[in-house]
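Q: Protein A?
A:
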Amino acid sequence: MDLKRLRQIIDRASSKRILVIGDLMLDEFVWGKVGRISPEAPVPVVHVTNETFFPGGAANVARNLREFVDKVSVIGFIGKDRSGQQLRQLLAERKIDISDTIEDDKFSTIVKTRIIARHQQVVRVDREAIAKPTTTQIGKVAAAVKKKLPDIDAIIFEDYGKGFLTRELVGQIAREARVAKKIVTADPNPNNLIDWSGMTAVKPNRAEAFLAAGVPDRDSEVAPKKDVDLVRAGKELLRKWGIQYLLVTLGERGVMFFEKGKVPHHIPTKARDVFDVSGAGDTAIAIFTLTLACNATPLEAAQIANHASAVVVGKLGTATVTRDELISSLENDFD
């Protein structure tokens, strides 16, 4: 794939309409300096210099898409608390449609707080409670998605295992989407046993792939091309879920791309510096799905997603990749 081809794909992006469904979160970053160790315990004392907030979880997938797409919608739980109001405001500022998101006064908005000093994460504090939608709420979401289907190009299920995605909800929406011949992808969570059968593509990380496939990971240090266990797990998931494509993210080793009936393809990482892996998976599933919707070949979509992830891990905090950064990443690759 050359730069001309990349531009052809990306130039189609702005007109695409993508729907993200999953666990919504608020990402909080507390930035500071460490000058001493606490006299109360052997822990660093962080002097706070700044705080920043970003949409997290499924909301971060939508945020990544908005760098390229004019119309993005997201559906999940948001509480009627202060954090929920903040998350709503952040999404509204980015012109992300949340009209079908469920606001529940019994739900506490999920917040992940990362305390960072000297470019290193000192600790992460999670405020969350697992909550599943009621039968009524599932029906409401399914009806809203069915109404949107004629006007969208793809659906992304983003599962952080916080309860919003259930077998019933995913099953209802996936069936309707398949009938409508829409692209449907999923970023799974091993703690949530959802049947991803019939998806266009699923994007687990290495550990998630092995757990879902029920295959033992005997040697994670072997080169991906020679990793017989990884190949076995990938092929098993293609069979188990009956999906067309499987994209397994391998961290600093890039991604392994599986396509039904074809030899697996390892794509090495393009990252030059790794500062923060927060949200890298969100970027990968967002760009992979978007480029599929832009008529990229599946392998091209995997390559572009790999480049996009390489850009965001070189940034601190929950980050996104822009069009110019993505093109620059490929230019550097050619150089």
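Q: Protein B?
A:
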Amino acid sequence: MNFLSFPRFGLKNLKLFSLLLLLPLIFSYSAAAQQAQLSLVDIITVLRSKKVTQAEKNQLLTEGVRQRGVTFALNADLEKELRTAGADDALVAAIREKGPAVKVSSTPQPKIEATPVPVKKEPDFSFYQNRANANFVMGEYDTAITDYNRAIELNPKEPAVFFSRGLAHFNKQSFSLAIADFDKVIELDPKEGMAYFKRGNALEKTGNFERALSDYQKAVELDPDNEPAKAALQKLQAAIVKQTPTPTNTANVQKKEPVPQNTTPTNTTPTNTTPTETTTSTEPTNFGALNRFASRLAIPVYPNIERQRATEGLVTVEVTLDEEGKIVSAKAISGPRGLRQAAEDAVRKSKFNPVKVGDKAVKATGFINFNFKLS
């Protein structure tokens, strides 16, 4: 029997026609099969049939589902598939109502763990620091500085990376940038002697001998075994001795030429008058600043207690020399009291040439200024 087409059949009895059309798909000829539930394939096949309108197919299927039921439970995916095939709300509701109840298994299902996706690790502080150090060793200072900059952004409290970047700047002869980095190291770790030593190197390169000498002294104070710092300190001190005035802790000479001045009211030599060989006064003649007569001018040692107190200032030491240039007396007459003894000690450790007027050596008095200034 062929149920596939009925070319002469009219539409007067539409329901009967639709039932006849669906018989090959959803009905069996046995009595037992007539009660079979509709499957998903049955319903999709009818919905996609082009023999009747969509509304008619939905109406017929809805009645069939309500009478027979369905073999499947409706879920979101199946509903989407049915809707795509043309199922309307009534049909979907009937399928949901007549579908079998979902049985929940009492047996716990094995937990399926997703395989972790490897996460790409972002470069950290150590990565940039190590790569910068490697480039530094190879002399690639610009590349190293770029990585040091990134490392500092990630950890601005690590003094070691500032120190390394300072060395790179120093090797590029960017001394101001190097000094700034060593300043930061000392700020983060005030007891880092090498930072003082390298900052002293950079300061000396810029001609700032006062601060350089102070840094060398601090480096040796923090680390007495720092031989390079000791050598740099001695070398700079020797260079300073040859200069008048000395650049470290010594004030600029206030008078370029020795101008005799009276220091006591009993001195009868007129002020600003150069003594002659006929001078008969036994009083020392005041020559003002005595720096120019020094063959070796010692550098004062900054007292630790005054350094901690941040004591600074100009100390003036009044000095009296005999005819041989030996120190008769050295007395600080002005300046911070905590710094005066250090200034007096420095004068006593200094050496002076005989002061002569013409060919005659005379007693002389005058002053030496020391400018104590912390870096």
